[in-house]
Amino acid sequence: MPQCVIIADDLTGANATGVLLKKISYNTYTVMNTERLELSKLAESDCIVYPTDSRAVEPSIAYNRVYNVANLLKNEDVLIYSKRIDSTLRGNLGYETDALLDALNNDAIAIVVPCFPQANRILVGGYMLVNMVPLHKTEAALDPKTPVHTSLASDIFAKQSIYPIASLYIKDIMLGKKHLAAEIKRMKEEGNRIIIFDCISQEDLEIIADGVIESGVKFIAVDPGSFTATITRKLIDPREKKNKYKILATVGSVNAVAKNQLNELLLAQKVLPVYIDTKELVLGEKRRVREINRVVEEIQKNCGEYDVCAVIGNGILPENRLNFNEYAEKLKCLPEEVSNLINDSLAEITYLLLNNNPEFRGLYTSGGDITVAVSRKFKTAGIRLLDEVVPLAAYGEFISGEFDGLKIVTKGGMAGDQNAMNLCIRYLKEKLYI
Predict the structure, then answer these.
(1) I want to staple 166 with a disulfide (CB 3.0 to 4.6 A). Which of 15, 179, 187, 351 is the partner?
(2) For residues 190 and 175, what is the distance between their CA atoms, to the nearest angstrom?
(3) Which residues contact 217 (CB under 8 A, 6 or more apart)?
(4) CB neighbour class for 358 (10 Å; exposed up to 12, middle 13-18, buried from 19)
(5) Cα-atom radius of gyration of the chain, to the nearest Å?
(6) Where would I find the beta strands (DSSP E) of 169-297?
(7) Dist. CA 322–CA 275, nearest whole Å
């Protein structure tokens, strides 16, 4: 029997959630017809998703459909029950949450995390924003079947659910998982059955999931899919065990576009950033080697709990940017030789980290000069191009050399919008099943 059961209010939402789970290595089965349900297929699945087609029906019908499906699928082997809701809060989400709680009849509480950061649906102060616009001012308000007239998520649930509702906000998430765990337990003891969480990023989803697990309470997940995927990854091992690989990002770009992209990545994902003092790289060989070793040692010492580690030239911060002409005059060389020395040093750090740590199986490089320097250091014959991630960002693998077959995403330092670096790293994670 699958360990994760997701009941969705429509088929497209069901499949969207199923794809999120498939991307992180879970065998997922969308049930279309219970009369033709193949038990053998269920037995080999990690997760099943059941669409009830209940978003636009009468509340009592929606309740009954979810209640009946939950009774059909509940099993002692299931670790996670999820009620998949629309990412713009349309439909019978409160009635259906009640139905799942009632069917399980096990004192669980509903952990409602209605954000979908990948699609720019976030919850701040309890209010849903879509592309930074309040929900009630978006097309969701004009939906002919299930219009939404408020942006306050708790109002929507309160009008539909019979159960007491509480909320946790960004200020609570900032205090970490232990604080969230204590608040979840307190709110449950006070009689609340539904807790709605603010959320703006994948990092928030991770903290919320950790807090729920830390609390030890019985729960159901209520969300558009991202939270369910996050907490499933933390609680359930896929039948086809994924390899625990890591990604190294080498960022040598020093323009404002790259800086904004890096900021977005650090907000969206859990990344270990280590900054290189680029001035140390050009003030003599001893200082260069010492700085290279410092960066390598810092990453090796601290990378254990991170899937992504980033080596970043500190010139990405304007106050640290070197004047190549000035240093070329001091060193009696050409400005491009100063630039090459920095790029070659970044390539050497990348080489040492990948050579000493076989768990690094994916590489992201920002800046054409960095990619060239890395390829030269790796003695690669080239890159076999496999896909375009975003415009001007390519996915491929090294051909020959010391890291033959290593997966890489390359992107120009000024290419893409603010989210481009984040998207590239996520793409590489999916390819490596991290």
Answers:
(1) 187
(2) 21
(3) 108, 109, 184, 185, 188
(4) exposed
(5) 25
(6) 194-197, 219-223, 246-251, 271-276
(7) 15
In this predicted model, what pLDDT tens digit does every residue of 68-90 receive, in sequence order? Answer: 999 988 988 899 999 999 999 99
Output the DSSP codes for 370-384.
HHHHHHHHTT--EEE
In this structure, the chain runs to a length of: 434
Is residue 351 domain-shared with residue 209, that is, in the same domain? Answer: no
Tokens of 127: 């209010």
The Cα 309–Cα 201 span in angstroms is 18
Note whether 421 and 380 are same-domain residues.
Answer: yes
Which pTM does this prediction carry?
A: 0.69
Q: Are 50 and 10 in contact (CB under 8 A)?
A: no
Q: Which amino acid is at 430?
A: E
Residues of the domain holding 295: 246-432
pLDDT tens per residue, range 104-161:
999 999 999 999 988 889 999 999 999 999 999 998 888 888 899 999 999 999 999 9
Are residue 280 and residue 338 in the same domain, yes or no?
Answer: yes
What's the confidence (pLDDT) of residue 244? 67
